[in-house]
Structure to design on (269 residues):
């Protein structure tokens, strides 16, 4: 009896609060230790006492934990959770964080499924090539499907030449040149014109970047392009359209230089 009389009116012990909230005393003690839920009063005997207001605060803590907030975030946010607008802002931010996590997980799931299909098609254990495919999936490179058909020489060269940033830049250059070639065809731009020759120069620069200047890789790149065409009809059709401009533009470009990268000089008429 004396024990119960010692509790002031309107207060409850940690055990009483735990019972009302359906959680353990240890959990409340932990929140107290972390500075998230301090008692409203400490009795002369050292008993930690809580009020209904503390119970509401504990309810907020449990609700925010359920919504995915960390204890550090809860501790920081309690300073500004006094109004409905404060709560809406906090929940909106957490909603965005959760949505971002969902997006990341969905991208990972897509990558895993795509890689599973690639592994099944390759029908061999090639961990270096798998690593290249994974890296390109992470970079959201829609042309990752081509990697499994590169031979080891081309892959080794590309691994030594490019990191993530430069690899993405190369893909952007490739797409930009292809788009410009299609645009020039539609506009009737002459391949010998300044525009045509600038595009040929950009294309050859890209080839040199891929090969690292190793001319022995050029025939392999040609073989690879032919292999891609046999595997992907739409890609083949698009590349044939682009090559109809690029190849003669390159010939005109090399003619002006008097240089044949495939061996020998180009003689002027």
């Amino acid at each position: 009896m004396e024990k119960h009389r010692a509790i002031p009116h309107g207060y409850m012990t940690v055990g009483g609060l735990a019972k009302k909230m359906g959680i353990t005393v240890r959990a409340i003690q932990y929140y107290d230790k972390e500075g998230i839920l301090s008692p409203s009063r400490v009795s002369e005997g050292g008993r930690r006492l809580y009020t209904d207001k503390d119970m509401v605060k504990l309810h907020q803590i449990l609700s925010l934990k359920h919504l995915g907030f960390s204890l550090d975030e809860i501790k920081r946010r309690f300073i500004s959770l006094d109004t409905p607008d404060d709560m809406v802002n906090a929940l909106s931010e957490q909603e965005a964080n959760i949505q971002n996590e969902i997006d990341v997980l969905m991208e990972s799931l897509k990558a895993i499924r795509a890689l599973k299909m690639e592994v099944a098609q390759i029908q061999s254990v090639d961990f270096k090539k798998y690593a290249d495919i994974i890296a390109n999936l992470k970079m959201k490179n829609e042309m990752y499907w081509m990697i499994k058909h590169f031979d080891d020489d081309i892959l080794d060269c590309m691994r030594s030449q490019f990191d993530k940033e430069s690899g993405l830049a190369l893909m952007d250059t490739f797409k930009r040149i292809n788009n410009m070639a299609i645009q020039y065809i539609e506009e009737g731009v002459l391949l010998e014109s300044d525009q045509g020759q600038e595009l040929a120069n950009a294309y050859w620069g890209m080839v040199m970047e891929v090969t690292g200047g190793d001319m022995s890789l050029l025939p392999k790149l040609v073989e690879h392009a032919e292999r891609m065409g046999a595997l992907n009809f739409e890609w083949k059709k698009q590349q044939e359209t682009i090559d109809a401009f690029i190849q003669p533009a390159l010939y005109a470009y090399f003619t002006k230089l008097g240089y044949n990268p495939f061996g020998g000089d180009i003689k002027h008429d």
